């Protein structure tokens, strides 16, 4: 199958000439034709110009734990920055492959890190815009013959110049279904990841075990992915740090006993179905805010103090079905997002 997305047709080396003519002779100074490379490169100036440290510092501040992930992102940023300086002193540096695989359970920060990675790549000049286009199988694969290629190319068109983030990428490959069109999308991705790797970065994401099977079944993809980064689960202490950070960012505080109650909530919630780490923490806080608002609304107070408007009390958390012992496992509605909460 031929795919030419974003590829420019070959051009004759003389196509820019209106008509053939005899070459003119010039006396060219050898030093002007091949200027000498600089003897040194200014690392501090490059850091100031790109401001890449600001993104890395934001990643440290905004993302709890995940030290191995942050370390790997810093290593990638360091490689790209040093390659830039090598070019300044005339040292050949082939553009490294930047396609990546992010593996881990839901809510462990994969999308957040993808957004920060796009900022790093943009500031260092490896993509045109700090843009992430997120998609799933449904966005790429069609339901009938001739439908997949246009869908995949349209998503690639939108991602061109930035980062394409394919969540649960293993659903593209369904070998048990001979009539599945996911293989066609994979073939297009393979060609683009090679032919357009200087203009598009692809990040595959999903559960680690399924992603490992996906790459084993598609060695062509695996060979094009240079960076495999695993996102570990959060423990309860780290989830509490995430909760406190989210509360502070939204100008809420835990009242007396509420922080301990929220910890008790998490200790139960992590063992229930559909637990999604940071995402579940966010949803639980949104539910607590909803109950707090309903509590304040029902008190018929004429005025509310700033502290009252900011404070989450234990009862706002204890109303969760997680604390209802007679509730059937899996019936918990605290993992469902509140309307309007993203």
Verbal overview:
With 342 residues, the chain is an alpha/beta fold. It contains 15 helices and 7 strands. It has helices at 30-33, 43-50, 52-62, 67-88, 110-123, 137-140, 148-159, 182-195, 208-217, 219-222, 236-249, 258-269, 278-298, 306-310, 314-318, and strands at residues 100-104, 132-135, 163-167, 201-206, 227-231, 253-254, 311-312. The strands form 2 sheets. A 5-stranded parallel sheet has the order 2-3-4-1-5, with helices on both faces. Strands 6-7 form a two-stranded parallel ribbon. Helix 3 (52-62) packs antiparallel against helix 5, helix 7 packs parallel to helix 8 (182-195) and helix 11 (236-249) packs across helix 12. The protein is globular and about 75 Å long.
**CATH class category label of the largest domain:** Alpha Beta
Strand content: 5-15%
Output mean pLDDT.
88
Q: Percent helix among the residues?
A: 40-55%
Strand order in space, largest sheet: 2-3-4-1-5
Count up the helices: 15
Q: Topology as H/E string?
A: HHHHEHEHHEHEHHEHEHHHEH
**CATH topology group of the largest domain:** Rossmann fold
Terminal CA distance reads 40 Å
**Total beta strands:** 7
* Major sheet description: 5 strands, parallel
Kindly provide the radius of gyration, computed on alpha-carbon positions and rounded to a whole number of angstroms.
26 Å
CATH architecture of the largest domain: 3-Layer(aba) Sandwich
Which overall shape is indicated by the principal axes computed on the Cα atoms?
globular
CATH superfamily of the largest domain: P-loop containing nucleotide triphosphate hydrolases
- How many discrete domains? 2
SS-based class: alpha/beta
Q: Which spans of ≥5 residues are poorly predicted at pLDDT below 50?
A: 1-26
